[in-house]
Amino acid sequence: MPFTNLQNELNERTAQGLLRQRRVLQSPQGVRITVDGERYLSFCSNDYLGLAAHPQLIAALQQGATQYGAGAGASHLVSGHSLAHHQLEQALANFVGKPAALLFSTGYLANLGAVQALVGRGDTVFADKLNHASLNDAALLSRAQLKRYRHNDIAHLTQLLEQAGSGRKLIITDAVFSMDGDLAPLPQLLALCEQYDAWLLVDDAHGFGVLGTQGRGTLSHFSLSAPRIIYMATLGKAAGVAGAFVAAEQVVIDTLVQSARSYIYTTASPPALSVALLTSLHLLQQESWRREQLQKLIAQLQGGLQGLPWKPMSSSTPIQPLLVGDNEAALALSTTLRAHGLWVPAIRPPTVPQGSARLRISLSAAHTEQDVQQLITALHALAR
What we know:
- This protein is α/β, with parallel strands linked by helices and 384 residues long.
- It folds into 2 domains: 21-49 and 288-383, Aspartate Aminotransferase, domain 1; 55-286, 3-Layer(aba) Sandwich (Aspartate Aminotransferase, domain 2).
- It is 43% helix and 17% strand.
- The strands form 3 sheets. It has a 7-stranded mixed sheet with strand order 3-9-8-7-6-4-5, sandwiched between helices. It has a 4-stranded antiparallel sheet with strand order 10-11-14-13.
């Protein structure tokens, strides 16, 4: 049989407790969902502000579809760049304090396009070891030399920068690490960029909308502003819709338009999404109670997780990992919680390092204190 080797690899994954499986969501995204016909209280979504099913976003999406149709029809550089795309790019650049912005269909494509367009053979990329897979793939695709530094280890990164040869230097990092929930030391990274004449690409997929003044992101959180910073954020998490953008100096954006292959050679996202996202930006700025509610829930959960046999990882963000260690144990804990009506995903290698399987608890502003207490009570009951 031609696929025997593939089946053997799948069987091995199953034996190691690493087989991934999809579940079918039959309801809108939210804290209460229907999956495979069963109702659950969900702690697994990146819809941090509870906007994914917001009535105003749904109405804006409907209006956008009426005005622009269902699809863009072509790439941005052919005939697919609509007025809605253009207005959203301007609004996003202004929101994050950058001169210009460029829309991408996904965060994965944004990272692939930006890194590949800015560096190549003869250049060097410096990457945090816990970066998202899209940043790792982007560095490999660029054909630049890739140097990975220990997680948030400024001394190690300094050493690698000192050893670097000529050519462009690009430091790439998550702003909020998606599986740990901790923040990158962006002020120190920017200082190294100034010292060693490097650029800093910040992937703020999990900080945009959540951190900073009015949810303007991690740069706002740290009060950072510099031409060397190239900022990427996604629009399908806290913003509640879909897509991503890169914001930077005008010359950087112009370069991406000319050279970012994942921008040039793909159909533009539906303009209706941009109409909905303009409404989302308005909600981010007007409804600060969502971020305030998140902070209350984070504090409540952190207090309630104390005394468990599984270790809570240090995080000030809605991502609250509970370290289990063993793959099968993490999977069993997730399965048992699901039997109690609680949906909390088990995250296992290779997404996280070996021996660090965990529950990734994600909080939303749409959760209530009672929701969080229900999870805390269930975990303590299982621990006993």
